[in-house]
Write a structure and sequence with these properties.
Glutaredoxin; two-stranded antiparallel sheet; alpha+beta
């Protein structure tokens, strides 16, 4: 359904100058494995985050497919994590998120699917990550179509539109550069 992203490893070896945008927000959320995850669990790791919900029939499967491709491309990188925050905590229980993670082949030791109380992830998205989020009615939930890149020290280093292949290549280059720091 979705074409795989073609990646140029030559681009990854180029010097990447990434600004430090802001500190990533603190959080404590339920994960798909029945535990809790906090930003402290990501300390010392590079991580890529997105905002999704499992009932989404539009952009969320595309976002998750692209995140899955990143997971596969960096399968041997122990210092990299992936975080998918659910913007639909009413429906996205840990059990539902576990099924969603399995559907997309997530390695849940490296890719965390997180949910919280109503409004908690929306606030995290809007105030913490400075990304759009919000309810648009019973079936429509607004959220960003970008990946967020966070460095080992917990600082946001970039936002990458998922629907632009050149931006996804930039993300891969940036991940490679941050892992090498």
């Amino acid at each position: 359904m979705f074409a795989p992203l073609v990646f140029s490893w030559a681009l990854a070896s180029a010097a990447v100058d990434l600004p430090v945008l802001k500190e990533a927000p603190k959080f404590s959320l339920n994960d798909s494995q029945g535990g809790k995850k906090t930003q402290a669990d990501l300390a010392g790791k590079v991580w890529v985050a997105d905002f999704i919900f499992t009932r989404c029939g539009g952009q969320c499967p595309f976002l998750t497919t692209k995140m899955s491709e990143l997971q596969k491309a960096f399968a041997s990188e122990a210092g990299l994590r992936f975080v998918s925050f659910s913007v639909d905590p009413k429906n996205d229980t840990p059990k539902v998120l576990a099924g969603y993670a399995k559907k997309f082949g997530a390695d849940t030791s490296r890719w965390f699917f997180l949910t919280g109380k109503p409004g908690q992830v929306q606030e995290l998205s809007e105030k913490g990550f400075v990304l759009a989020a919000g309810a648009g009615g019973e079936e429509a939930i607004a959220h960003s179509f970008r990946f967020v890149l966070v460095d080992k020290k917990g600082f946001i280093r970039g936002f990458y539109p998922v629907n632009e292949p050149s931006k996804l290549e930039e993300l891969r280059s940036a991940v490679t550069a941050l892992l090498a720091e």
